[in-house]
Recover the amino acids of this structure.
């Protein structure tokens, strides 16, 4: 069973046999199956079944000689049309399956973001057709099995504007340092030392979450899972039409990045409101938009 199935409203499906029955039912209608021929002997098929707008299960397998769909793997997904990053994305195939990971060297976060590419079928099509894999932008989403709502940090408009300017300046320094600017490297080192010193002094008297406004940190041994704290800027409530379970779709702003996080209503601690913060561990997914080939 996929760990994040409960995120999209399948918390009662805890046994493999129940999941198998569900997937068999979802695969009954093959009228909209996508199929590509990898070679003479093998093909790849994709079936997507929405359980709420933009949310559902993606099922992959192979069509045999008798026209029967042979399921190989599946995963829950959440789609977003909000652009998270316009940084060029590096794409690499996973070892065991016909799935792909994306890597973004995003200055705003300060780390390389690795995520599970949701439009992997399109990636495989472009590879077969020898099309360019250059990307225009990425839209990221996250699935969480648990999370909590934190109160916001009180800020004035002046403080918010100052933070935005400081973040922009830091991004410019990071870009310059990456290009070999030694002065930028030295400035960043001094800023990090000052920041560490300030945080160390404040943590003696203040709560940790009043110091850390937002964060984006790798979590666990899997490279596409992160611990995040982000400001909730929009809340959408959805209902799984199969189980009737309610799910939240939060639009978060975290380290100047906009992305969506999905969590089952029963797995969230606290009352979500716009302006409050979400804290949780997420499995990061995303879709990449490929640049159109120039004729």
């Amino acid at each position: 069973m996929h760990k994040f199935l409960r995120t999209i409203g399948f918390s009662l499906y805890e046994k493999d046999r129940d999941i198998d029955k569900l997937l068999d039912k979802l695969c009954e209608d093959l009228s909209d199956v996508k199929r590509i021929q990898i070679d003479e002997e093998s093909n790849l098929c994709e079936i997507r079944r929405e359980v709420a707008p933009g949310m559902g299960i993606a099922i992959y397998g192979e069509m045999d000689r008798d026209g029967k769909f042979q399921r190989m793997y599946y995963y829950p997904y959440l789609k977003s049309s909000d652009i998270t990053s316009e940084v060029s994305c590096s794409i690499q195939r996973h070892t065991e399956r016909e799935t792909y990971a994306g890597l973004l060297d995003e200055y705003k976060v300060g780390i390389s973001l690795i995520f599970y590419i949701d439009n992997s079928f399109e990636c495989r099509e472009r590879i077969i057709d020898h099309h360019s894999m250059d990307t225009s932008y990425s839209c990221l989403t996250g699935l969480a099995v648990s999370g909590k709502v934190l109160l916001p940090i009180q800020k004035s408009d002046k403080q918010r504007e100052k933070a935005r300017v400081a973040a922009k300046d830091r991004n410019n320094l990071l870009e310059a340092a990456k290009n070999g600017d030694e002065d930028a490297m030295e400035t960043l080192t001094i800023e990090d030392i000052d920041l560490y010193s300030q945080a160390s002094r404040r943590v003696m008297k203040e709560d940790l979450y009043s110091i850390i406004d937002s964060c984006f940190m790798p979590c666990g041994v899997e490279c596409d899972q992160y611990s995040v704290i982000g400001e909730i800027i929009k809340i959408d409530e959805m209902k799984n039409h199969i189980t009737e379970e309610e799910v939240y779709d939060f639009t978060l702003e975290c380290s100047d990045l906009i992305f969506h996080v999905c969590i089952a209503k029963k797995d969230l601690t606290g009352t979500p409101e716009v302006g409050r913060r979400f804290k949780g561990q997420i499995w990061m997914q995303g879709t990449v938009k490929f640049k159109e080939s120039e004729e």
Notes: The chain has five helices and 14 strands.
